[in-house]
Design a protein that fits this description.
The chain is mainly α and 292 residues long. The chain has helices at residues 25-29, 39-61, 65-84, 88-111, 117-144, 148-171, 185-198, 201-227, 237-246, 255-270, 273-276, 285-290.
Length: 292
């Protein structure tokens, strides 16, 4: 989990810190949005109930957050192994356990006052290992199945997932903040779990690939605007709806975020696996059944 101790995507310790004065004018002037009760926000609140008990236990035992981060990565390697051998349900369970550690490390660091710049570096670096491990497991699976097409899809998803994180890290050596683009690490991890538990990994990979490419493009464009003091694309009118969807600047647990989540889940769960040439699932899916 991000903390300073770490940030949700890697944040390089900056030698150049330009500050908000170099961000687009809308970012500087934008007021803080009031909290809203949303679908994803409600899920997050429910998930926090058991996590608080785990956090309190780790604090009571005074487990160092760097240790929690390392444990999470090691467990995620087990999830990668399960993915590599097509044991998706097992992989999903292991990912849940691994990402409990990944989530609580920052909370424990904050409570124990153990935030550090090295902690941020450690967390961000090991997060990349986790990302690489899970996608490498899928690449291994598809190579065993003789599916070179999905080896390529998984490889491209791996490249652009890492580039999403790198683009933010590099941008934040030049500007204060570059948290744009929808497909960040938490979304990727949740999608991996959904793909594993419902055997819809092909749909998940296509979503991760497409939105990771878009996230990289968003971060490149945002950095260009910020460095040149240019405004963000307008959110007014029909063009604004398009800009809002494809140049993502909204926060999590907002109504636009919920809309994207519902659209993604609809694609993953409703698209027939046969249409995607899914190497591990077959059948017409709900859409195929409805159009019969």
């Amino acid at each position: 989990m991000s903390r300073l101790h770490a940030v949700s995507e890697p944040s390089i310790i900056r030698s150049t810190d330009v500050g908000l004065r170099d961000a687009p004018r809308e970012v500087q002037d934008r007021p803080a949005a009031p909290p809203r009760r949303t679908f994803t926000g409600l899920i997050g609140a429910i998930c926090m109930l058991p996590l608080r008990a785990i956090i309190n236990l780790c604090v009571a035992l005074r487990i160092h957050p760097n240790t929690l981060t390392l444990i999470g990565v090691i467990i995620n390697v087990g999830a990668a192994w399960a993915l590599g051998y097509g044991r998706f349900m097992l992989a999903g369970v292991i990912m849940i356990i691994a990402n409990i550690f990944d989530f609580i490390d920052g909370k424990v660091a904050h409570i124990l006052h153990l935030q550090s710049r090295f902690g941020a570096f450690w967390d961000s670096t090991l997060d990349r290992f986790s990302d690489l491990a899970l996608l490498t497991g899928l690449i291994f699976l598809y190579s065993r199945l003789g599916r070179s097409d999905y080896v390529l899809v998984a490889s491209l998803a791996l490249i652009f997932s890492i580039m999403t994180s790198y683009a933010r890290a590099r941008a934040e050596s030049l500007v204060e903040r570059c948290k744009v683009g929808f497909m960040e690490r938490p979304e990727r991890i949740v999608l991996f779990m959904i793909g594993a538990f419902t055997n819809r990994m092909a749909g998940v990979l296509w979503v991760i690939l497409a939105l990771s490419i878009l996230a990289v493009a968003n971060r490149i464009y945002y950095t260009y605007l910020a460095l040149n003091g240019l405004p963000l694309p307008s959110k007014e009118g029909i063009v604004g709806i398009f800009n809002r969807a494809f140049f993502w600047t909204d926060e999590r647990a907002t109504l636009p975020y919920d809309v994207w989540v519902i659209a993604i889940l609809a694609f993953v769960w409703l698209t027939p696996p046969d249409w995607l040439g899914d190497p591990t699932a077959t059948g017409p899916g709900l859409i195929g059944w409805l159009i019969k």
